[in-house]
Amino acid sequence: MQQGSAGEAAGIASATGGPPVLELTDISKSFPGVQALKGVRFDMRAGEVHALLGENGAGKSTLIKIVSGVHRPDQGSIRIDGQEATFASPLEAQRAGIATIYQELLLFPELTVAENIFMGHAPRRRLGAIDWPLMRAQARALLASLDIHDLDVNQVVGTLSVGNRQRVEIAKALSQNARILIMDEPTAALTERDVERLFAIVRLLRARGVGIVYISHRLEEIFLLADRVTVFRDGEYVATKRVPETDRDDLIQMMVGRRIDALFPKFEAPIGGPVLELREVVRKPTTHGVGFTLRAGEILGLAGLVGSGRSELAHVIFGITPADSGEIRLGGQPVSIRNPAQAKRLGIAYVPEDRGTQGLVRPMPLKENVSLAVLARVAKHAFIDRAAEAALAAASIRKFGIRASGIGQIVNKLSGGNQQKVVLSKWLASGPKVLILDEPTRGIDVGAKAEIHRLMSELAQQGMGILMISSELTEIMGMSDRILVMREGRIVAEFARAAATQEAIAAAMMSSTVPMALAS
Amino acid sequence: MSLANDTARTRAAELLRGLLFRHEGILLGILAAALIVLALQSDRFLTVDNLLNQGRLMAEIGLVALPMTFIIITGGIDLSVGSIMGLCVIVVGYSWKNLGLPLEAAILVTLATGTAAGFINGWFITHVKVPPLIMTLATLALYRGLAEGISQARSVRGYPEWFFVFGQGDLLGVPTQLWILLVAIVVAWIVLARTTFGRALYAIGHNEVAARFSGLPVDGYKLAIYTFSGFMAGLAGFIFVSRVSTTRSDMGTGLELDVIAAVVLGGTSIFGGVGTIAGTTIGFVLIQLLKNGLALTGVKGDATIVVIGTVLILSILITNFVQARRAGER
Amino acid sequence: MATATQTVRAESFRLAGLRRLFGSQEAVLLGVILLLFVVVGGINPRFLAERNLESILQGNAYVAVAAIGMSMVIVSGNIDISVGSLIGVLATVSGSLAVAGAPIIVSWLMPIGISVLVMLIIGFMVAYLRIPSIVVTLGMLSILKGGLISATGGKWISNLPPGYNLAQNELLGVPLPIYFMVGLTAGAAVWMRYSAAGRAIYAVGGNAEAARLSGISRERTLMMVFAIHGMFVGIAAILFATQLSVIQSTVPPNLELSIITASVVGGVSILGGTGTVIGSTLAAVLIAAIGSSLIFVGISPYWLRAVQGTLILLTVLADLLRRRRRTARR
Q: How far A444 CA lies from chain C's nearest CA (Å)?
């Protein structure tokens, strides 16, 4: 309650006095093949936490890249304190007082905390040499001002935990006298304790008058921390609301634009026997004793925060990082999966999280990507049969409705949705019994999303067991027969489709006191 | 129906575009030009004798350039090929003269040594994850050191007549090693362009992570190509000894320069994912012609490496430029 | 209660600092050097004779000096395998100038200027044209090597004027090269550790993207690194050239390897971003000591190269293990 009122007070105060610290008007930005932002607006007041919400591909990342000077907008204006501003480079944005904390932390692992904080703007002595004692003292003071007392400024950053590294990043931003701090999914890789500390720091900064742009897909955090929330959808501005004046359903409605059930064509599929069983599977340091059963025809949703170990679990099942111990059974038979080639032979397919770097070979044409996992199938005695490969590619284009100029098109040119379809067709060509999908509709337009969901339902109907990892609660709830929740490498909750609510799932993802809700 | 027509049309367009504008096409043009220039420069050049002799001389580079093409396509590099060749040269002499093995066995031991040396490179690169640059730089020293240590700077001579057939003999008028090279070129070309192995190499070079995630046996394939590189270096070493009739521990020094220059000149990108055997072949033929031309105009042997070095740098600059432009227009 | 926790934390920080000091590569090297002296001195006490130790240091100081610049290049994430050939060329240039009657000081300083210029060219290609340094310096190596041979025609330079031999002088009984080695190492170490420009090298080598976002230009930093490297190579070349009364026409065999080995074994990680010049100097001393000790222990010096290769391999493996253990601990 206090945080709300402090934020409110600050918000009201600056609402009545002076222009917003940051104001973006009618911003549009497009890249080859995709219109990322269409005439959006956004504004920040001093001493406010303003959340930016939207599904993947809604344009959040592009917006913050524009604010932080990485991209120039195609049209629209940026105003700092009412003055028009253009940033030719991230450095200029920094000098204007805008600092960004990215998900992939940009630190130097071999250098110390103090050096990282002051890299590029260390206090100097007369001859240009760095004033080391002063730098260290200033680093300590900065950390103390953020109420961080357990970090040694001489420690090499590479040895720090993710939470500590993030705090170093925040101190770094402050060292540049940031008035606006942009945080992009800051809690994605954090432990619970680190999340609490992060919230404390955010509230501290807000009280000091720093404006914080908080990007997150976690509604719970927004209600805990933010003063206002702006929703983007498909690159367009939807609305800005004061947090006390909105609720979860309202936000989801704005994010998604339609009722939940209409989005997900889920058909009833006959559930058969177990196709994949895990028991006490361990892989240090990310997977600690995971066990579950996936049945034929079932879509098992796997929810959890980023860093909870879901992709890592998929990598264990798929043999990329084999299990240290535990049992995996396929169709009732215990198997040992030491590498992806083995997993493939056993009938497991994995559509990875990052299709650009993990799922596709972007400079190669469509037909070569489609055949990549089944080269043996389109070859006679190790010689590639071009005709067979072409036929497979053509069939895939037809079956999945891939919009491409031909089987020879370089997949780099395809849109996100079509790229994902290529990856899917590649793996379905291997005839799997178990299909693991890792964020299957991330960064994909709504139309393609629906097609992929329909495809999933059809595959389930045909008896495939599907494990779906997703960070979109609406997708999890719309598509899954059962939902598992993972946290810190363990399965902490299980919900049947009918019994699941977003609140329960979200609560399981974040706190440690949720009792195990068993399948009905 | 229309999709089938599409497929055929795309194939035809690809072929045409490939012939005219690809790197190999341009190289062929340069090759033709070079032949003409050199023929005009010296009337000794365009004789059958000279050309066949050049073929003899370039066999060693050619043999090693084939696996180097595979390696550079996967984004790796092998700097130790010269040292492996030097080591194998010594091994053949040592096992025969000092260990008393029959020469046939010594030859097999040599090939085995090369294969083992390449395997060690490949094993550390794939299983210990040492970057190829460092690993092969270390083995460049280590293998050369072994060669020097084993030979103690003594050279071995006195091989029997049949031994020289490979390096100095002919088969149907064509030098023996040229036949071996031709067979190797054909096999390498087929493997790279037509087999699943070759396709996998390109995938690894473009995006090793995606290749792994697609279930391709990335480590196994990489191990294979480094082992193959070692074997070919050994084969080249054996042919070299057969050609010059003696063994010394500094043989093969600088081979890696010639080979990498040939591969890069042939259009293989140092960043991986792009390259062909045809290009590499034209590459080492061009380099040999270059050396020949320079020699015929009186430039001494050592100065030719100046030219080769320049060619290497220039060809990378040009390839970079062309690829950057092509990436832009694609 | 807070103070108790703080005290415990302060103590554990200090312990961690101590552990870092003793576990550091520099400490390990110092230990190995002492061990070597003890062992070899035990086998053959003449190894420890002052004259021998002095000659080890004096004769190899130039390798350590060259390794200073090389270390900076490697920290920035690049490599230079042309340095041996460059030293050979510079030494010849220096000697030729002296013999041709130029003022001694010119024959000392001009080669340093040439060296900086050559390195700026290489640096430009690496920084702005984005060509991998391994390829640029591979090409440059052959250009220099071949150029040297053709220019000198294989002749050695003698009749050097009196006063030319800088490296043969002594100050307070200690040969001048040792002063250079120690002084330059100390200066460079301080500069790299404490100056903004020096830290920028570590930043660019560690994470070039992050460096850019901190306002550090990768291109300008790399140009600076190569230029400074050129300066050190130039100084090393002068120390090398002025050691003996003749200047040979060939480059010292595998000099670049010795220099790179010194840097790598000295703790400069080939993956970029870590390492110190103190480590590389210690490693240069160690390698020189090993070379000398081989003779005193009765092992043929022809095994030195093999030892170097093994040392590189061992150090790289240790570095990889260290990095992996660090990431696993997180």
A: 27
